[in-house]
Amino acid sequence: MGNNSSLMLRDEEIDVISKETEFNRNQIVRLYSRFLSLDKKAQGFLEREDLLNVPELAVNPLGDRIVDAFFTLAGDEIDNEKRLNFRQFVRVLAFFQPVDRSKKNSLNGRRDKLKFAFIMYDLNKNGYITREEFKVILNSMVGANITTDQLDKIADRTIEEADVDHDGRISFEEFCKAMEKTDIEEKMSIRFLN
Amino acid sequence: LQMVEFKWDEVEKIYIVALWLFAASISKLVFHNKSCTRFFPESSLLIIVGLVIGYFLVISNVDHHQFSLDWHSFFLYLLPPIIFDAGYFMPNRSFFQNWDSILVFAVVGTIFNTLTIGGSLLALSYSGLFTVPFNACEILLFSSLISAVDPVAVIAVFEEIQVNDFIFVNVFGEALFNDGVTVVLYELFKQFLEVDRIMPIDVAAGTGSFFLVAVGGLVVGLLFAVFVALLTKYSHGAIVLAPVFIFLVPYLGYLTAEALSLSPIIAIAVCGMAMKQYVKGNVTTTAANSVKYFTKILAQTSETAIFMFLGLSTLAFAHKWDTLFVVATVGFCILFRTVGVVAQCALLNRFRGKKFTKVDQFILSYGGLRGAIAYGLAVSMPDSIAAKQMFVTTTIAVIFFTVFLQGSTIRPLVNYLEIELKKDRKITMAESVYSKYSDYIISGIEDIAGQKGHSSLVHDFERFNNRVLCPLLMRDHARTPNFDATKIVRAYAKIIMDEALVETSAPSRKGSRKSGAHPALGHCSCPSTDNDDHLPDCTRRGVNMDMLYAAFSKMLDDKMDALRQELKNCGSSVGADQDIFDDYMEQLKHAPSLKTLHHPALSATRSDAAMRHHAAFAARSVSRHDSRRCRTEGGLAHIATPAGLEL
């Protein structure tokens, strides 16, 4: 369902997606037209290049990591190429909905938002962030502005702060613990337009 | 021939001014004692002092013109430092996150309040219960000045209770920017008084002038901010000059805006907010600190003086007390403010991520304090208005009511409602990195989802800032397409510094890793000693003292290298001018004129001497700072920050 190149979005699909992700109808339709505009080759699914072609993403220092995270979280691997259909596209975006405390939402809770951030750090997807991985991320964000020495020091310091069991790397639990005082719900939320 | 003369007349005026400031400051010193301020905010205590002094003066038949504040001087001399201080120290990030609500409160809220309060009082006046009659224009003039929330009063009260940034920035932002609206409405109604009939074109002109005044003030503020930034960028030859510009130029902006009938308050506030980033990058740390302190000094003095004079002027004025009018005004003010806030929040909450809770709304409506600006405007009403005396008296009554009653009850209310207070906890490295990091993620997601959200706008501005504004306005700023790392680096430096200070103030624990109890509980001067977080933090870093001293000497070496480098690059004159020397003898020794005489061979020794002096100065500051709390200021920051960093 929705996996093949069906370019029209059927009502039942909208309902299913709506139930799954708590987006309302208008939001889903809007996202669908966005999906179509990203899918330039009209294949019915998105590939990495499609997302990387978004112009603003090119100047975002974390651009390719974000795209990577998208595909890790929800993509299918077919012929060694990661593909993202519309339903998966919306599922990932659903992570960023504002947390509505009254609704028991499964997709955009605090842990899920943190999961997205964690996946972006964790380059080799082994479930741990090592010092080197963190340095890579920090470097892409900060890069030219500070010396390697300072970069090392900052990376070391950050890892040390969060590394509770002193194994030299950060697990997802440690990551959550380090972030517990941060206002994740607010920082990692987007108001999706109707 | 007289040996000693008593030259009172020559110094009389200025002596009195100085005496008042002195009296005000002494009172403030006395009130800093916590037991006094437990019940009443400082501002109300100052008013009481003013009242007391005024009473004595009145009894002793002193001409009240001697001590009543000329409201002209109030607007030109006393108000600007406070607003500048507010703008300079405004938490910019919180401000921009809430700009929508601030704008709505400032504009819609003020207009709503003006119309409703004025309308209600007018309706009530038809019943003929008020002693002095007034017409629609006059009452609208009055209601326009009474509905404005006063920034001075808000700062005075909220600064003491230290609520979280979110509430503070909303109340305060509103107080600051509603001046634009108030000024327009006030002038508008003042002009309408002269005119017999009000045509629709006049109303349209009024609306147009609102935009002109507010936006004009904004533009003036930004322009002068750019001036200051450029001036500080090119003034690094004379270090002492930069702070002068930092104060003078915004003040010029204030006066310019006032001269052009734009909003001077908005101008100087915007100027302060905009220039901070660039100015901080252009001046030395010491200069930045002195700017910080001096701004605070000026602002505090002005604030103190204002409240005291408010008390004094109460007695200097011939009052007309109309109980019903006063009660009605106070009642309507409270009522319509609450209604207004609730309605606006309901509207805003539909569009905002961070919603206003009921408690937030309560504090917002309760924090609508009136202050000296309203009084100033009331007193400068045209005398042709028959009800002027009644208006002024009522204004004073409202101000007293808000400052005394609301000001004193707000602290217990805040505690009772368990409003989140400003968190003073130390930010971890992970958090400051994450803060930046999440901005990027959200911006990217917004781009993918195809919507221009708040984050992407901020992101766009940051890129513009880095690419265009910073190189233009800041000295030595590398053109960086990526973001400005200084925040993260600063956070890192700050954390290291705080820890280092903790270590040095704790008694030496040789190699004790994770000792059970905190060894220096009594002695550790960390501000958050009774916080649970402190314990694991301090014990985790159970490094022995030798390592610490090694780290410190390494940092000192780094700094010396950096200084040497700087001296080599900029020539020795910069090194010598880095500090203001302790006395004139020292200054003469390093005077630039001597430099022109020196031999190239001597230049090495000269720069070494300068460096040694600088290092000695810095070293002295270290010992001074050891005994202080875990804060990084002044000299210690110089020592331990690696090259190129500024805290």
TrEMBL record, chain A:
<dbReference type="InterPro" id="IPR051875">
    <property type="entry name" value="Calcineurin_B_homologous"/>
</dbReference>
<keyword id="KW-0597">Phosphoprotein</keyword>
<dbReference type="GO" id="GO:0005634">
    <property type="term" value="C:nucleus"/>
</dbReference>
<keyword id="KW-1003">Cell membrane</keyword>
<dbReference type="InterPro" id="IPR018247">
    <property type="entry name" value="EF_Hand_1_Ca_BS"/>
</dbReference>
<keyword id="KW-0106">Calcium</keyword>
<dbReference type="InterPro" id="IPR002048">
    <property type="entry name" value="EF_hand_dom"/>
</dbReference>
<keyword id="KW-0677">Repeat</keyword>
<dbReference type="GO" id="GO:0005509">
    <property type="term" value="F:calcium ion binding"/>
</dbReference>
<protein>
    <recommendedName>
        <fullName>EF-hand domain-containing protein</fullName>
    </recommendedName>
</protein>
<dbReference type="GO" id="GO:0015031">
    <property type="term" value="P:protein transport"/>
</dbReference>
<dbReference type="GO" id="GO:0005737">
    <property type="term" value="C:cytoplasm"/>
</dbReference>
<feature type="domain" description="EF-hand">
    <location>
        <begin position="109"/>
        <end position="144"/>
    </location>
</feature>
<dbReference type="InterPro" id="IPR011992">
    <property type="entry name" value="EF-hand-dom_pair"/>
</dbReference>
<dbReference type="GO" id="GO:0005886">
    <property type="term" value="C:plasma membrane"/>
</dbReference>
<keyword id="KW-0519">Myristate</keyword>
<keyword id="KW-0472">Membrane</keyword>
<keyword id="KW-0479">Metal-binding</keyword>
<feature type="domain" description="EF-hand">
    <location>
        <begin position="150"/>
        <end position="185"/>
    </location>
</feature>
<keyword id="KW-0449">Lipoprotein</keyword>
<keyword id="KW-0813">Transport</keyword>
<keyword id="KW-0539">Nucleus</keyword>
Automatic annotation (TrEMBL), chain B:
<keyword id="KW-0406">Ion transport</keyword>
<feature type="transmembrane region" description="Helical">
    <location>
        <begin position="209"/>
        <end position="231"/>
    </location>
</feature>
<feature type="transmembrane region" description="Helical">
    <location>
        <begin position="359"/>
        <end position="379"/>
    </location>
</feature>
<feature type="transmembrane region" description="Helical">
    <location>
        <begin position="238"/>
        <end position="254"/>
    </location>
</feature>
<feature type="transmembrane region" description="Helical">
    <location>
        <begin position="324"/>
        <end position="347"/>
    </location>
</feature>
<feature type="transmembrane region" description="Helical">
    <location>
        <begin position="74"/>
        <end position="90"/>
    </location>
</feature>
<dbReference type="GO" id="GO:0051453">
    <property type="term" value="P:regulation of intracellular pH"/>
</dbReference>
<feature type="transmembrane region" description="Helical">
    <location>
        <begin position="139"/>
        <end position="158"/>
    </location>
</feature>
<keyword id="KW-0050">Antiport</keyword>
<protein>
    <recommendedName>
        <fullName>Sodium/hydrogen exchanger</fullName>
    </recommendedName>
</protein>
<feature type="transmembrane region" description="Helical">
    <location>
        <begin position="43"/>
        <end position="62"/>
    </location>
</feature>
<dbReference type="GO" id="GO:0005886">
    <property type="term" value="C:plasma membrane"/>
</dbReference>
<dbReference type="GO" id="GO:0098719">
    <property type="term" value="P:sodium ion import across plasma membrane"/>
</dbReference>
<comment type="similarity">
    <text>Belongs to the monovalent cation:proton antiporter 1 (CPA1) transporter (TC 2.A.36) family.</text>
</comment>
<keyword id="KW-1133">Transmembrane helix</keyword>
<dbReference type="GO" id="GO:0015386">
    <property type="term" value="F:potassium:proton antiporter activity"/>
</dbReference>
<feature type="domain" description="Cation/H+ exchanger transmembrane">
    <location>
        <begin position="23"/>
        <end position="415"/>
    </location>
</feature>
<dbReference type="Pfam" id="PF00999">
    <property type="entry name" value="Na_H_Exchanger"/>
</dbReference>
<feature type="transmembrane region" description="Helical">
    <location>
        <begin position="14"/>
        <end position="31"/>
    </location>
</feature>
<keyword id="KW-0739">Sodium transport</keyword>
<keyword id="KW-0472">Membrane</keyword>
<feature type="transmembrane region" description="Helical">
    <location>
        <begin position="260"/>
        <end position="276"/>
    </location>
</feature>
